[in-house]
Amino acid sequence: MKQFRHKTGVTSLAVSSFIIALATTGSTQALAHDRTSTGALEQQIKQLESQLKAIRDELNQVKSKAAQDEQEIKKVKEEIVLEDQEIKKVEEKVVELEEFEHKHHNISHRLFFRGGYAHNLQERNGASLQSNVVPIGAQDAGGNDGWYVGAGFDFSLTKDVWGFLPNTEIFAELMFEYKRFGHSQGNALANAPSQLAGGAFNPRSVTISQFTLSAAPKIKFMEGSNFRPWIIPAGLSMHVVSPATESVTYVANPGIMFGAGADYRIWKNFYLGVDARYHEVFGKFDGVNISGLTAGGYLGIGF
């Protein structure tokens, strides 16, 4: 019995020792495993910190680059603003130059052709018409009424009266016209020499005509408009009559011309207009008074 109990105690002691040994071995292994896991975790944390630092550095570089780009963009915008201002100044200068060119250099001129009614204040007389020198023959005075044709040239001088009056243009007009007052049965001097005695019975027809050359300032209003009224305050005119006067001369009578009219631009640089002009020669020259007036229309071509 004692021997059995002794064997049982020895067995229990052996089992206990084995269990303690196993426990001690397991604790050591667990502790070693925990230490290994902690080291790996610390290593991962260090790697994460290193990666985070790299990301932070890269982000700072991006921010710095963005700030530099923003400065560059701001600088470019400022340069664009300056360039826009320069362009605006240049455009304003171009507009000023164009206005100056329009006012002082790009000036329109005009060629015009006239025609219409002509009237003399007094019937025409003269050497071969109704003559006081040779009062024989038909003695048929010339008529008062007739027609005229002519042409002229307008040269534009200024579009604003040299800065004193805007939208008012001044032209220098040079014009000529031919007037015809019909035919008259002349006196003896109008016949052939062999028929002087029979002038009253065999008269010769005489054409009554007049040539006028004039130069005058023409003031046109409403510059830039299609409709342009105008006046001629006073101009110089020279008149040559046919047939000859009592002194048997084709006298060139000087006089003053006054005029008024208006025209309308019908298409591009083509104009239609009407005008009336009065010529005053202040009395008679060699027995002939050729003061009179004209009224009619004209076609103008600008260039």
User: What series of H and E elements makes up the topology?
Assistant: HEEEEEEEE
Question: Based on DSSP secondary structure assignment, what is the total number of beta strands?
Answer: 8
Q: Identify the strand order in the major beta sheet.
A: 1-2-3-4-5-6-7-8
Contiguous low-pLDDT stretches (5 residues minimum) are: 194-199
Protein name: Outer membrane protein beta-barrel domain-containing protein
Organism: Nitrosomonas communis
Signal peptide: 1-32
InterPro entries: OMP/PagP_B-barrel (IPR011250)
Structure description:
This protein is of the alpha+beta class. The chain has 1 helix and 8 strands. The protein folds into 2 domains: 1-106; 107-302, Beta Barrel (Porin), CATH 2.40.160.20.
Brief rundown of the structure:
Helices cover 34% and strands 38% of the residues.
Q: Any chance you could write out the topology, listing elements then pairs?
A:
Blueprint: H1 2-104, E1 110-120, E2 145-158, E3 168-185, E4 205-221, E5 227-242, E6 252-267, E7 270-280, E8 292-302
Antiparallel strand pairs: 1-2, 1-8, 2-3, 3-4, 4-5, 5-6, 6-7, 7-8
